[in-house]
Amino acid sequence: MFVQEKIDDDLRQKQKLVTLEEFWNWYPDGYEGRFELHNGVIVKIQPTGTHEQVAGFLAMEIGFEIKRFNLPLFIPRQGLIKAIDTDKSAYIPDVMVLDNNSIKNNEPMWKKRSTITQGKTVKLAIEVVSTNWQDDYLMKLGDYEKLGIEEYWIIDYLGLGGRRYIGTPKQPTISIYHLVEGEYTLDLFQSQDVLKSSLFPELSLTAEQIFQVGQ
Predict the structure, then answer these.
(1) Are 153 and 126 within 8 A, CB to CB?
(2) Which structural domains are found in the chain, ordered by start?
(3) Residues with Cβ < 8 Å from 29, sequence gap 6 or more?
(4) Is the separation of the CB atoms in 152 and 129 below 8 Å?
(5) Burial bucket for residue 20 (CB in 10 Å: 0-12, 13-18, 19+)
(6) Are 175 and 188 in contact (CB under 8 A)?
(7) What is the pTM of this model?
(8) Interval 5-53: pLDDT, tens
(9) Which of the ends of the chain has fewer CB neighbours closer than 10 A, N or C?
(10) Which residues pair with 74 in a beta bridge?
């Protein structure tokens, strides 16, 4: 309880915009909570239990594919992705798949700060939608595209996103974005649709299987 109260007090005192360096130095050592930096503002992430179940299920299924085909990839427990054109934004995807070789050769901040700066290192980023759905469909989508992340999934298992993103009537939807010539193309998956991933073409998973985990 004391740790949580101390963190809440620190957040209230952080009225000014902070840089990524200041965010790193502030980040509570050993605390199990999650924080992101949105345009200089520290944001505390508080996922629900079902949100974590969906993210954990996806990590398990994707981890199986990595092991099955002995791919040079891994799923970190936690790590930041720095936005490409600012030192005031960094995100923690609910699931991300990283390239082992790129980590070794292109990511000097990884060992000390668990932070990714190169889009080519992130083979897949997954965000599970909560009530702040605009962050996933607007802010993170744009930043992940500019950074050059090859594949981005938005798992909207409650159908919370705007109608311009998931259609009418609103319903649980998975949006998969693939990077093509520097721009994202979009495929939507609902109900019994089988997900199509360029990174994991053998993955046999329907949208409904994922949605059921969150029910």
Answers:
(1) yes
(2) 49-213 (3.90.1570.10)
(3) none
(4) no
(5) buried
(6) yes
(7) 0.91
(8) 444 555 555 557 999 999 999 987 655 578 999 999 999 988 899 999 9
(9) N
(10) 98
